[in-house]
Every structure is written in C-alpha cells, then in structure tokens.
Write a structure and sequence with these properties.
five-stranded parallel beta sheet; single chain; 144 residues; alpha/beta
Length: 144
C-alpha cells in the first residue's frame, strides 16, 4: 500500500495521482486533505511520514504547491528520505541511488501527465544498493 497526502496547494494534483495509482491497481491510503481550504504543509506531512515509518506503508507521496515546503517538513522525520522530484530522471535516481521512501511533487508547478510519469518511474525503479547503501548509512548517521 501507498500513503498519499497534500496540503491545499497539492490537493487537485493529489486526487489525479491517486486515481492514476488506483487505475494501476495500487492500493492507496489518502491521509488528506480533502478540500482546498488553506492548511499548513507540516501538518499534512506528519501523518504520511508516520505511516511510512510505522512500516504499515512501504512508500509515500506528498504534495504541496511547489513540493518544497512539504519535502523540507518530511525530511525532519528520522528515517524519512523524501525527494522533491520535478522530472523523470530525478524520480529514477531518488529510488535507485537514494532509496527515497517518499517523493514530493508540486501541485502548482507539475503538470498532471508529468506527475504520472514521475510517480510511475519512482514506483517501477529499484534501489541499487552497493555503494549507495553506504551513502544511505551516512545519512542515517547524520540523523543521530
């Protein structure tokens, strides 16, 4: 299962991404928001990050207007490796090299079809391990 959440700036794109994932046969848990009323993105990042950290959900997707604020908030959670992805190559590298367990998208800056390609690429990519595992270990050391 995949966890997804957004603030008001990512609400519309979140709904499109969620539908796209469901059409791919991926079970998605929507942690909100459920309308375009203004909310603070740190509050929206929290339940998705906690769900991923609990291992109830393997990965998560977070959206805000640009993806910047929500990615900063998500990366404050020890064990979260959230990558802001605005192109397909970054999505591939986020998984293959960084083993990102959350990707972030900007609802006001990323088109729907591009968002689908970014999400699909990230989901269909695998962590390469090897030298990248050592780098991930160093990131975990920074969290201490």
């Amino acid at each position: 299962m995949l966890a997804i959440g957004s603030d008001h700036g990512g609400f519309e794109l979140k709904n499109h991404v969620k539908k796209h994932l469901e059409e791919r046969g991926i079970e998605v848990k929507d942690f909100g928001v459920y309308n375009e009323n203004s909310v603070d993105y740190p509050d929206c990042a929290k339940p998705v990050c906690e769900a991923v950290l609990s291992e109830e959900y393997e990965r998560g997707i977070l959206l805000c207007g640009t993806g910047i604020g929500i990615s900063i908030a998500a990366n404050k959670f020890k064990g979260i490796r959230a990558a802001l992805c605005s192109d397909v190559f970054s999505a591939k590298m986020a998984k293959e090299h960084n083993n990102a367990n959350i990707i972030c998208l900007g609802g006001r800056v990323t088109g729907r079809e591009l968002a689908f390609m970014i999400v699909d690429t990230w989901l269909d990519s695998d962590f390469l391990g090897g030298r990248h595992s050592g780098r991930i270990a160093k990131i975990h050391e920074l969290e201490k």
